[in-house]
Amino acid sequence: MNYLHHVLTHLRKDLRLEWRSRDAINGMLFFSLLVVVIFSMAFDPTAAASRQIAGGILWVALLFASITALNQGWAREVRNHVLDAQRLTPAPASALFLGKALANLIFVSAVELVLAPLFVIFYNLHALGEGWMMFLVLPLGTWALVCNGTFFAALGLRTRNRELMLPLVLFPISLPALLAMIQATTAILTGESDPELWVKMLFGYNVVFTTVCLLLFDIVLNAE
Amino acid sequence: MEMQQTSCKAAAPLHSTTAPAISLAGVSKIYGGFAAVKNATLTLATGSCTMILGENGAGKSTLLRLLAGLITPTRGTVSLFGGQPGEQRGRVAYMSHAPMLYDELSAMENLKYFASLQRTGDSCGCVASPEMALRAVGLDPHLTRPVGQYSQGMRQRTSLARVLQSDPELLLLDEPFSNLDVSSASQMVELLADFRTWPVTGGGRRTIVLTTHLAQLAEPLADSTVTVRQGTIVAHTLRETAA
After folding, report:
1. Could you tell me which residues come within 8 angstroms of residue B205 by beta carbon, excluding any fewer than 6 positions away?
2. What percent of chain A shows pLDDT beyond 90?
């Protein structure tokens, strides 16, 4: 219970900070909207072609957009040396990680809520497969992005070019998850194949990487 | 500037009363080719107040960060209350010259956040409520302005309230009087003197280590003075007390 209390303390603090500044959400929202509009104009796809490419555009837009939120989240902790004060408290390091990852999940999900209807309009989409499965793919895919992103953003905290470091490390690590997200979304939109295998793969990826991130975060936080 | 204590700790950590609060044995901290601290050996008794003096860049802050366990020594061993610094979380509080507060939150929100992180097991881990801690340092707890809009002096006092509310047995203060006017600095010295008298749950006494350039201000508080020059401890003098 104590662990949960610490996770919720970090989560509440991150939500409050974002509510006051709106740095992460505004940046993500404008970036992802631009990607959606620009791709829509550049390709002017038919409904059938849209179903083939929409999954890729959606997840790549979210991946790039989430980078801004992930960097912002840790920048706040480094400013004024707040991270040092957190390190001296008895609260476990993994609670800080989990609180921040959950906050990032909420921020990216909020952007998805705005983005999804616009996506349907701009790309003239309606799912030919089992549309309800998007309610599985979206949270699983978003968690895969934010969990690894939060971890690797912390890993790059003490590097000089941390804004550059994060995509360089995160993108290759996220490739299997990205593949699963895109394939599952495309399968749902086109109805040509079963997305179940990709959803299972995404779930397995999340279990493995969440466990590794939680176990290793203490080392990352206290590294010099 | 007195703070009424309301102890809410259910269980205090066990500690050896015989072990010194701080023990450094041949400690060096080397960054690349630069030795910030060289072969430091020092023992400070529990309940003491030590003032570390030295010029800018002498290694005072590095010494404090080593004691806090925020950095590890390149050579030598650091021991707090007979154990590793990393094992003493919750017993040690550190105030750096950076405020260690979120600019976007008010003083009260910052303090409540850190008080919440002090909670371990059945214990709330804080000796005073955030409101009492803020009043003790002379700040209005109902101030809703974010800390980012505070003056440097107000931030410094909020930062002191943050460390005091955590009920530390070892208090490490890096330049606590910088950015404060003479009157506020004197009040801070009084508050620290008062803090030393607060009882520690489970016995023991409170230890303070502070770095400062204002030696005259901290002198009444300090039992001993450590002088650091170019990373080396060149003197450790104990204040003579009347028999």
Report:
1. B46, B47, B196
2. 55
Distance CA A170, CA A156 (A): 11
Average pLDDT, chain A: 90
Q: Which sequence spans correspond to the domains of chain B?
A: 22-238
**pLDDT (average), residues B159-180:** 90
Does the beta-carbon distance from B109 to A16 stay under 8 Å?
A: yes
Nearest to B117 by CA among A2, A51, A208, A44: A2
Q: Residue A81's domain spans which residues?
A: 2-222
B68 CB neighbours in chain A (<8 A) are 84, 88
Q: What is the pTM of this model?
A: 0.88
Could you give the CA distance from residue A135 to residue A133 in angstroms, rounded to a whole number?
5
Contact B172, B200 (CB under 8 A): no
To the nearest whole Å, the CA of B87 is away from the closest chain A CA by 9
Interchain proximity B70–A88, CB inside 8 Å: yes
Residue A174 has φ and ψ, to the nearest 5°, of: -85, -5
Q: Between 3.30.710.10, 3.20.20.70, 3.40.50.300, 2.30.30.100, what CATH number should domain B22-238 receive?
A: 3.40.50.300
| Count of domains for chain A | 1
